[in-house]
């Protein structure tokens, strides 16, 4: 059973990492680590994570070794007459100074990464992700000025469409590959959060304000995410599906989408009630 599950996980991982052109960034069985990076921001988050792993592992090993040494060398049997020393200036300076140096070493790449995420390059494409209880509305105010709703598929529809359960949507959002995409998020009712792990994006969608973030998808394929701010009863059922396509395919989609969603001018409440 375990072996079979491992084999499935390895196959899923191979499908994600493999250069087949259709990267699918979705959770898989026995997933242990973060989803493979598909944007410069996520690649840097992964690098930073590796750095932290090295530092925390080293600290764990050093502290454990010290404990073992103290237990063996200074137990009552091997050290019957304990030292009365209560101060050691060099030691005290060291155990204050070394953690400070470690924290500064972590802070430098951390701030660099924060600024890299926050400083949005000049976008090639901009869309709005509007969180609603409980679906997403996407608007393309610059590329054609249209908007559409994106609802989760039912489990049966997922199966039929070959989508991962609870992650497929009826109307995915399309973006071109290797282009800077700016995402402007807002909430129409309560706070939601637009998050796609493979892009390293998680931005709160707050009513009354617009939060901006960005990504540059580096691989063509389908990417999944979920609302990541508890927003009510159906919070778990408002997934995000992003199709990263070639520039030509993006323009083909834009043309079709403009026509398909042209009638979306009625008030939202009407459409919600009709579903
Ligand atoms: Cu939510």
Could you walk me through the main structural features you see in this protein, from its secondary elements to its overall organization?
The longest helix is centred in the N-terminal third of the chain and has 34 residues, at 40-73. The chain has three domains: 1-33, no CATH class; 40-118, Orthogonal Bundle (Helix Hairpins); 125-274, Immunoglobulin-like. The radius of gyration is 25 Å and the shape is elongated. The protein has helices spanning 2-17, 40-73, 89-118, 155-161, 247-260, 268-274, and strands at 23-25, 125-132, 135-140, 146-150, 173-176, 181-187, 192-196, 201-205, 211-215, 221-227, 239-245. The strands form two sheets. Strands 1, 5, 7, 8, 10 and 11 form a six-stranded mixed sheet that branches. Residues 1-21 and 269-275 have low confidence and may be disordered. The protein is 39% helix and 23% strand. The protein has 275 residues and is α/β, with parallel strands linked by helices. Helix 2 packs antiparallel against helix 3 (89-118). The protein has six helices and eleven strands. It starts with a helix and ends with a helix. Copper (II) ion (CU) is lined by residues 192, 227, 229-231, 235, 238.
Helix content: 25-40%
Provide the list of bound ligands, each named once: copper (II) ion
Provide the number of structural domains. 3
Largest sheet properties:
6 strands, mixed
Structural class: alpha/beta
Mean pLDDT: 87
SSE string: HEHHEEEHEEEEEEEHH
Distance between the termini: 41 Å
CATH architecture designation of the largest domain: Sandwich
Query: CATH H level of the largest domain: which superfamily?
Result: Cupredoxins -  blue copper proteins
Tally of DSSP helical segments: 6
């Amino acid at each position: 059973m375990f072996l079979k599950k491992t084999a499935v996980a390895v196959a899923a991982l191979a499908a994600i990492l493999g250069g087949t052109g259709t990267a699918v960034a979705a959770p898989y069985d026995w997933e242990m680590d973060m989803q493979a990076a598909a944007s410069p921001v996520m690649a840097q988050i992964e690098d930073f994570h590796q750095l932290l792993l090295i530092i925390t592992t080293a600290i764990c090993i050093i502290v454990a070794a010290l404990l073992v040494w103290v237990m063996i060398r200074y137990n009552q049997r091997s050290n019957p007459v304990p030292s009365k020393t209560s101060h050691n200036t060099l030691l005290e300076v060291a155990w204050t100074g070394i953690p400070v140096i470690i924290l500064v070493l972590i802070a430098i790449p951390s701030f660099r990464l924060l600024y890299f995420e926050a400083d949005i390059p000049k976008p090639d494409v901009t869309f709005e992700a509007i969180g609603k209880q409980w679906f997403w509305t996407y608007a393309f105010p610059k590329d054609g000025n249209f908007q559409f709703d994106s609802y989760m598929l039912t489990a049966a529809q997922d199966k039929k469409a070959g989508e991962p359960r609870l992650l497929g949507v009826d109307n995915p959002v399309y973006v071109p590959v290797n282009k800077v995409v700016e995402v402007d998020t807002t909430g129409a009712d309560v706070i939601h959060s637009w998050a796609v792990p493979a892009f390293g994006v998680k931005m709160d969608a707050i009513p009354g304000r617009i939060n901006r973030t960005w990504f540059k998808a580096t691989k063509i394929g389908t990417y999944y995410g979920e609302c990541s701010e508890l927003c009510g009863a159906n919070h778990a059922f408002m997934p995000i599906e992003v199709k990263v396509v070639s520039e030509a395919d993006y323009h083909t989609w834009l043309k079709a989408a403009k026509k398909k969603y042209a009638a979306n001018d009625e008030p939202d409440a009407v459409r919600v009630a009709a579903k």
